[in-house]
């Protein structure tokens, strides 16, 4: 008959639950896995499976009283760490959605919106196209495996112990919003500049010949040229994706970097 003490049971439970909170919050905030298209049961099952695989190789967390304040603080820390890592990756995908929004507004397709089944909001068609293309490229390059490796390595860098909140640089998460808008602007700048030149040309033609209804042909011409410019810009889309993905991984690595000194 097995002689198992209450202390051993508490140690087994804490060794499994604390990593589970970090992994589950990461999957809830991560794109593709944390979307409305993936049922909650599948996400929970995936989190339980990953935790069961990682627990034997993780450092043993401290045994804590389940009703103590320090236990709830530790749980909150694990949730914040996992959600921060997944949120930074989510920002990377939104760069292409915002860039598509800028291009669509300039070419006159800002009114052509559709419901995004992933986020449950209305997104312009061009932004949804860029978002779907980015997700397919991310999966084709095994980006999801890289992110699962990141969450695994986070347990070695920031173990499941009582830590100072400064160990996770939450200010970098706030500054990632500026990175999202700057990256979207850089991505859409060639197309927006080209379309701006076309609109200025039609404006000059209208000023030179007011009797001609230039805007009757200007709108469809701008739309066609916008689609052509978007098609041409796809040749350099892979390079833009690599640069933004490298920067996103750099931001994520800095979030879990152990501060020196």
From TrEMBL:
<feature type="transmembrane region" description="Helical">
    <location>
        <begin position="71"/>
        <end position="97"/>
    </location>
</feature>
<feature type="transmembrane region" description="Helical">
    <location>
        <begin position="179"/>
        <end position="202"/>
    </location>
</feature>
<keyword id="KW-0969">Cilium</keyword>
<feature type="transmembrane region" description="Helical">
    <location>
        <begin position="118"/>
        <end position="140"/>
    </location>
</feature>
<feature type="transmembrane region" description="Helical">
    <location>
        <begin position="42"/>
        <end position="59"/>
    </location>
</feature>
<dbReference type="GO" id="GO:0044780">
    <property type="term" value="P:bacterial-type flagellum assembly"/>
</dbReference>
<comment type="function">
    <text>Role in flagellar biosynthesis.</text>
</comment>
<dbReference type="InterPro" id="IPR006303">
    <property type="entry name" value="FliR"/>
</dbReference>
<dbReference type="GO" id="GO:0009425">
    <property type="term" value="C:bacterial-type flagellum basal body"/>
</dbReference>
<keyword id="KW-0975">Bacterial flagellum</keyword>
<comment type="similarity">
    <text>Belongs to the FliR/MopE/SpaR family.</text>
</comment>
<dbReference type="Pfam" id="PF01311">
    <property type="entry name" value="Bac_export_1"/>
</dbReference>
<dbReference type="GO" id="GO:0006605">
    <property type="term" value="P:protein targeting"/>
</dbReference>
<keyword id="KW-1133">Transmembrane helix</keyword>
<keyword id="KW-1003">Cell membrane</keyword>
<dbReference type="GO" id="GO:0005886">
    <property type="term" value="C:plasma membrane"/>
</dbReference>
<keyword id="KW-0472">Membrane</keyword>
<protein>
    <recommendedName>
        <fullName>Flagellar biosynthetic protein FliR</fullName>
    </recommendedName>
</protein>
<feature type="transmembrane region" description="Helical">
    <location>
        <begin position="214"/>
        <end position="234"/>
    </location>
</feature>
<keyword id="KW-0966">Cell projection</keyword>
<keyword id="KW-0812">Transmembrane</keyword>
<dbReference type="InterPro" id="IPR002010">
    <property type="entry name" value="T3SS_IM_R"/>
</dbReference>
<feature type="transmembrane region" description="Helical">
    <location>
        <begin position="12"/>
        <end position="30"/>
    </location>
</feature>
<keyword id="KW-0282">Flagellum</keyword>
């Amino acid at each position: 008959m097995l002689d198992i003490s209450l202390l051993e049971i508490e140690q087994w439970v804490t060794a499994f639950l604390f990593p589970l909170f970090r992994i589950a919050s990461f999957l809830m905030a991560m794109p593709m896995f944390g979307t409305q298209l993936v049922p909650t049961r599948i996400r929970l099952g995936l989190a339980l499976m990953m935790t069961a695989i990682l627990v034997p190789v993780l450092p043993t967390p401290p045994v804590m009283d389940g009703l103590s304040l320090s236990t709830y603080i530790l749980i909150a820390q694990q949730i914040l760490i996992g959600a921060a890592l997944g949120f930074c990756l989510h920002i990377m995908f939104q760069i292409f959605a915002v860039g598509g929004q800028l291009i669509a507004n300039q070419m006159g397709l800002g009114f052509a919106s559709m419901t995004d089944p992933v986020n449950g909001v209305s997104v312009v068609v061009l932004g949804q196209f860029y978002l779907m293309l980015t997700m397919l490229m991310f999966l084709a390059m095994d980006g999801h495996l890289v992110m699962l490796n990141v969450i695994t390595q986070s347990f070695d860098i920031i173990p499941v112990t009582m830590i100072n909140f400064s160990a996770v640089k939450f200010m970098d998460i706030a500054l990632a919003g500026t990175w999202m808008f700057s990256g979207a602007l850089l991505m859409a700048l060639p197309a927006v500049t080209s379309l701006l030149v076309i609109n200025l040309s039609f404006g000059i033609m209208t000023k030179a010949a007011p009797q001609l209804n230039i805007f009757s042909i200007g709108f469809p011409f701008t739309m066609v040229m916008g689609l052509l410019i978007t098609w041409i810009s796809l040749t350099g889309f892979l390079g833009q994706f690599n640069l933004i993905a490298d920067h996103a991984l750099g931001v994520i690595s800095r979030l879990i970097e152990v501060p020196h000194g």
